[in-house]
Amino acid sequence: xxxxxxxxxxxxxxxxxxxxxxxxxxxxxxxxxxxxxxxxxxxxxxxxxxxxxxxxxxxxxxxxxxxxxxxxxxxxxxxxxxxxxxxxxxxxxxxxxxxxxxxxxxxxxxxxxxxxxxxxxxxxxxxxxxxxxxxxxxxxxxxxxxxxxxxxxxxxxxxxxxxxxxxxxxxxxxxxxxxxxxxxxxxxxxxxxxxxxxxxxxxxxxxxxxxxxxxxxxxxxxxxxxxxxxxxxxxxxxxxxxxxxxxxxxxxxxxxxxxxxxxxxxxxxxxxxxxxxxxxxxxxxxxxxxxxxxxxxxxxxxxxxxxxxxxxxxxxxxxxxxxxxxxxxxxxxxxxxxxxxxxxxxxxxxxxxxxxxxxxxxxxxxxxxxxxxxxxxxxxxxxxxxxxxxxxxxxxxxxxxxxxxxxxxxxxxxxxxxxxxxxxxxxxxxxxxxxxxxxxxxxxxxxxxxxxxxx
Length: 455
Ligand SMILES: [Zn+2]
Prior knowledge:
The protein is an alpha+beta fold. Helix content is 25%, strand content 29%. It has 2 domains: 43-193, no CATH class; 202-454, Aminopeptidase (3-Layer(aba) Sandwich), CATH 3.40.630. Strands 1, 2, 3, 4, 5, 6, 7, 8, 9, 10, 11, 12 and 21 form a 13-stranded mixed beta sheet that branches. A 7-stranded mixed beta sheet has the order 16-13-17-22-18-20-19. A hairpin with a 2-residue loop joins β19 (347-349) and β20.
């Protein structure tokens, strides 16, 4: 017994020593890392030109992309100009469109499209500064590289971004102004983090709710009563239920892919408000989601289940590159065994639609949205979710009829798509929708997966 106690004590002391050693080594390593990091930054930032700064006139995150517009005048003529993110050792070149306005005066933007620009998902861990890099050569071909920093000319300040969950991991990007001494700077600080409880990857908005059923159709192809929307033969199929069915399946598939998914409603008896917190116009941004998918089914109002319209219509934002929309259309039609809609109105590409307010709608409705034009996106699911990128308009001036969208003026918003998956008053289409909700859900999820792999 005694011997055993002694052994135990010895063992304890041994374990303690190992633990302490690991702790001390860890602290030394941490200290070393911090010192090296600090030193790099200092030596690096002190080489930056202080004669002039590029002015940033607009910047916005839409989905997984960040766009930056700016202008600058250089004190000298240069051979080469690049927009870079640099930490003094590694330099990431950023695609931009540069225009020389007059001698050594330039304007630039990272893209014409709101869903292009800096891919925030791809940035490596570290502290990077946004800089204009200039390169010159003298007569002996000696290279001179100079860096110019940027200053904030907008009303906006710091941004934070959480990357989509990949292998159970997330990075956070703090995009912060003026973090170094008195110099104007824009720092991208990228580090691994645990996703906060209230931050999500993707929001699904199953259209309509317990009080608003949306379109209805009859399971036998007959026509619902004009006034009640209910069927005298067959069962009444309600759009809100179909939307929820596809949405719940989509949620399951996306979660299997590892994403954290928020829903504006999850049960048939849930009520959804548009502009309140976690409403159908606000949920995606309340949860810092990168994508918002509004799921709907269509109707053309034709009786007898013989609507000539059928198939998929994907409604998208203004000023976007259609890469993601194209993939979504192709994956949905393939996986759900359906077609794109033949509807020509608002169509911009096969299966892709951009719906703006018409002159008539503007003349007839002076309320929502408050300052619309023929360039204002019709669907709030796209317009209001996108903040300044999609010219959201609901600033609260028509409260309480239309409460304020808290994100209307945000420069950090989700990329939003509205799916009209098929026509409920085309009987063939209705049968496919009723029997094949899994296929539609799979199509959307596969579309997202393929798009993210290519980005
Ligand atoms: Zn609907």
